[in-house]
Design goal:
This protein has 13 helices and 19 strands. The strands form 5 sheets. It has a 6-stranded mixed β-sheet with strand order 11-6-1-2-3-19, sandwiched between helices. It has a 5-stranded mixed β-sheet with strand order 14-13-12-17-18, sandwiched between helices. The chain has a 4-stranded antiparallel β-sheet with strand order 7-10-8-9. It is of the alpha/beta class and 427 residues long. The longest helix has 25 residues. Among the domains are: 73 residues, Dna Ligase, domain 1, CATH 3.30.1490.110; 159 residues, ATPase, nucleotide binding domain (Nucleotidyltransferase, domain 5, 2-Layer Sandwich), CATH 3.30.420.40. A hairpin with a 3-residue loop joins strand 13 and strand 14.
Length: 427
């Protein structure tokens, strides 16, 4: 009998960002390596701070990106997973507990399950939809433990991190995908927070073991997430500030059109400008054409650097203050990975190291085969992380099939365990 062929794992990632829409089709192999099959990228046109402002315009751009990725891959669009960001997203920590009875203080898997169920009973406004549930830690009588099963204690607590979004805005994004593909059956399998996706795209087990944070600096929003252990998200957040704000600041300071200032931000490397002011920046001049046909203006490089540095300092300080308030800095033993288009600004890593007082490195996708300009770029950390999230989600959507006998056997054992746990004292 011949060897059974392995089922292909082909997934599609969609990221609708402030500046561009990225679509990536990829296939996973048994060694967890991801091969990129097709990529499509188009300007998003009418997305502001990560949120859709004009669905019709964004729909047209999404269609173009989907077609480009599909043509490049030679594969139909399927198993779509979508990343979202924006001010409507939020997170909350929740604690669930259960009392371990004194006649049998031995903690079992059922006790853990009960505590975890209580964690996710956190009450949110009715218009909010939960995107992610992450277990943060267990506490036995106030002491943090990795695995409470088998320990003795009086009280077991499970601590969880919940990420949620406004349901109507999430559905608006989902609807774009459904309209583009054509059938409701092909709506996104799941929606993932962009900050979580970026972390999954660049962090490996050796980094999360000691705790690591990813900061994804995009055009309109900066997301961040702290991960530890087995892909457990301890904390997440976002600031609706990105590279677009650098362009706006430069526009006000230099009295130039915003589009011209976007070009300045994107071309800082070629212009010799950096995220921190340089000693000779005041003597080096940029010849800038305000608008086509207008006389060139000479602008000191130091002026550009000063404006950019002030905004980035403020952004990093906001994130640091949030981490301090949640006692998260001590959890980041492996340092910070910086992703997104903003990570390409010259010497931004040095500026981040100065603010956070810890190692900061460029975050690029891991375990990926594909074009070098993609797999070596921090700009594609999020879509590649979406694919990794999607692979895990697909596996969870396909539970093992049990025979009727085995299902009955497991149900009877569960009932028996519950009866034994809740027996009266005089049994």
């Amino acid at each position: 009998m011949g060897k059974r062929r392995r089922r292909r794992e082909v997934l599609t990632a969609v990221e609708i960002g402030t500046r561009s829409i990225k679509v990536v089709i990829g296939e996973f192999h048994e060694d967890h390596v991801l091969t990129l099959l097709g990529i499509g990228e188009e300007p998003s046109m009418k997305v502001m701070k990560g949120e859709i402002g004009d669905p019709q315009t964004v729909q047209k751009q999404l269609d173009k990106a989907l077609v480009a990725a599909e043509d490049a891959a030679g594969e139909p669009i399927k198993n779509v997973f979508l990343a979202v960001t924006g001010s409507h997203l939020g997170s909350v920590n929740s604690i669930g507990s259960t009392i371990i009875h004194s006649y049998d203080p031995h903690i079992t898997a059922e006790d853990v399950e009960l505590a975890e169920q209580n964690v996710w009973n956190c009450t949110l406004p009715p218009d909010r939809e939960i995107l992610h549930r992450f277990r943060r830690q267990y506490l036995v009588d106030g002491r943090e433990v990795d695995n409470p099963v088998g320990l003795f204690g009086g009280k077991l607590e499970a601590d969880g991190h919940i990420i949620f979004g406004q349901q109507n805005r999430l559905n608006s994004s989902r609807h774009l995908i459904t309209e583009a593909i054509g059938t409701e059956e092909d709506e996104p399998k799941a929606v993932v927070f962009s900050g979580v996706a970026a972390a999954l795209g660049v962090l490996g087990p050796e980094e999360t073991e000691k705790g690591a944070m990813v900061i994804d600096l995009g055009a309109g929003v900066t997301e961040y997430a702290v991960f530890t252990g087995e892909a457990r998200c301890l904390h997440s957040g976002q600031v609706t500030v990105g590279c677009e704000h650098l362009a706006n600041d430069l526009s006000l300071a230099l009295q130039l059109p915003v589009q011209r200032c976007r070009e300045l931000v994107e071309g800082m490397k070629d212009l010799g400008a950096k995220a921190r002011m340089t000693q000779d920046g005041g003597t080096r001049m940029l010849d800038v054409e305000p608008t086509p046909g207008k006389p060139l203006r000479k602008i000191p490089v130091a002026t550009v650097e000063h404006v950019v540095e002030l905004r980035l300092q403020e952004l990093f300080q906001i994130i640091r203050h949030d981490l301090e308030s949640k006692d998260m800095l001590k959890r980041i033993g492996s340092g910070i990975r910086l992703t997104g288009g903003g990570a390409l600004i010259p010497e931004i890593l040095d500026l981040a190291r100065q603010i956070f007082d810890m190692p900061v490195t460029l975050g690029t996708p891991r375990l990926v085969n594909g074009p070098k300009e993609i797999i070596n770029s921090p700009r594609y950390a999020t879509p590649i992380g979406i694919l990794r999230f999607g692979r895990t989600a697909m596996a969870n959507l396909q539970p093992p099939v049990l025979s009727l006998f085995e299902q009955l056997r497991q149900d009877i054992l569960s009932i028996f365990r519950l009866l034994m746990r809740w027996r009266p004292f005089n049994w």
